[in-house]
TrEMBL record:
Residue ranges the record marks as coiled coil: none
Residue ranges occupied by any HTH cro/C1-type domain in the UniProt entry: 37-74
UniProt xrefs under InterPro entries: Cro/C1-type_HTH, Lambda_DNA-bd_dom_sf
Protein name: XRE family transcriptional regulator
């Protein structure tokens, strides 16, 4: 199966998702957050850096739960119009 390149919008959504998770994590360690969510620290690092622009839903749900983020808040952040200056408060 050939993987199609990500569109610019998908890349931007991945970057917004990563930024949201980084802000929500605050001073909490990446290792603790990842292990509590049941994912590898490398996976969390890639998501936070935007290198995984389309992570699996269960992965995001687990990380959001550990960080106390609702899935509605996550969706609102990643689905806002491209170029919009609005950001969710963390």
């Amino acid at each position: 199966m050939v993987r199609l390149p990500l569109t610019p919008d998908e890349v931007e959504r991945g970057q917004r998702l990563g930024a949201l998770l980084r802000r929500a994590r605050g001073d909490r360690s990446m290792l603790t957050t990842a292990l509590d969510a049941g994912v590898s620290p490398e996976t969390l690092r890639k998501i936070e850096s935007g290198r995984v622009a389309t992570p699996a839903f269960p992965t995001i749900a687990a990380i959001a739960d550990v960080l106390g983020l609702s899935l509605d808040a996550v969706w609102a952040e990643v689905s806002r119009p491209a170029g919009s200056g609005e950001r969710l408060a963390s």
